[in-house]
């Protein structure tokens, strides 16, 4: 058995006009829902640029920092994904090894100390739903004001993005086989059929 822990996920996007119908269907089939406003910063190794020049196919492992802005005492969460498992092994859903840790204090300095530099940042605003072992995030990306670095409301035509994924890292064991989580995300895919196309994606 692998020592990795995994995330299982499906992704989709839709236009604003479809928001009420999609919101209703997901809310109806979820245990809880709340609003979300998160800041995410993506870091790459400080030598990633040179590594890409040497070998363009070699994508660096990115470090991501996420903070929920609507929770007053929220801590930064640092996480990193490895390359998704092959489509031959998991054709129906994205299965990727991931690691995560909570950082008390300055996550940005912590990432810098690990040898990472900031690559980009985004703000996401929308909704989070819980459904069993899954979390469903539905959001629009907000632009960042170059002067203040604060988020600006998304344009009304901005696409909504959806991520259906396991709420916490899972090990592929006999008690919790990955197939259970794949079945869980596929159940949401079936649930949304005709309204929202959820699919596997290599990211």
Automatic annotation (TrEMBL):
Any Gene Ontology CC annotation:
mediator complex
Please report a single Pfam family linked to this protein.
Med18
Q: Choose any GO biological process term that the UniProt entry carries and state it.
A: regulation of transcription by RNA polymerase II
What coarse category fits the chief subcellular location reported for this protein? nucleus
- Which GO molecular function entries does the Swiss-Prot or TrEMBL record give? transcription coregulator activity
Instruction: Name where it's found.
Output: Nucleus
Gene3D superfamilies xrefs: Hypothetical Protein Pfu-838710-001
Protein role: Component of the Mediator complex, a coactivator involved in the regulated transcription of nearly all RNA polymerase II-dependent genes. Mediator functions as a bridge to convey information from gene-specific regulatory proteins to the basal RNA polymerase II transcription machinery. Mediator is recruited to promoters by direct interactions with regulatory proteins and serves as a scaffold for the assembly of a functional preinitiation complex with RNA polymerase II and the general transcription factors.
Entry similarity comment: Belongs to the Mediator complex subunit 18 family.
Q: What is this protein called?
A: Mediator of RNA polymerase II transcription subunit 18
Q: Which gene encodes it?
A: MED18
């Amino acid at each position: 058995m692998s020592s990795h822990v995994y995330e299982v996920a499906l992704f989709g996007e839709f236009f604003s006009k479809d928001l009420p119908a999609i919101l209703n269907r997901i809310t109806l089939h979820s245990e809880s829902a709340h609003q979300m406003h998160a800041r995410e910063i993506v870091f790459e190794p400080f030598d990633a640029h040179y590594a890409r020049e040497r070998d363009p196919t070699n994508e660096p492992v990115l470090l991501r920092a996420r903070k929920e802005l609507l929770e007053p005492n929220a801590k930064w969460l640092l996480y990193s994904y490895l390359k998704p498992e092959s489509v031959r092994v998991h054709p129906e859903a994205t299965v990727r090894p991931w690691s995560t840790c909570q950082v008390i204090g300055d996550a940005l300095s912590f990432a810098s100390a690990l040898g990472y530099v900031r690559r980009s940042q985004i703000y996401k605003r929308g909704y989070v739903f819980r459904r069993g072992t899954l979390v469903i995030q539905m959001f629009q990306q907000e632009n960042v004001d170059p002067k203040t670095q604060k988020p600006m409301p998304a344009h009304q035509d901005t696409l909504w993005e959806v991520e259906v994924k396991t709420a916490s890292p899972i090990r592929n064991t006999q008690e919790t086989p990955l197939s259970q989580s794949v079945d869980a995300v596929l159940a949401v895919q079936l649930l949304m059929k005709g309204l929202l196309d959820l699919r596997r994606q290599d990211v």
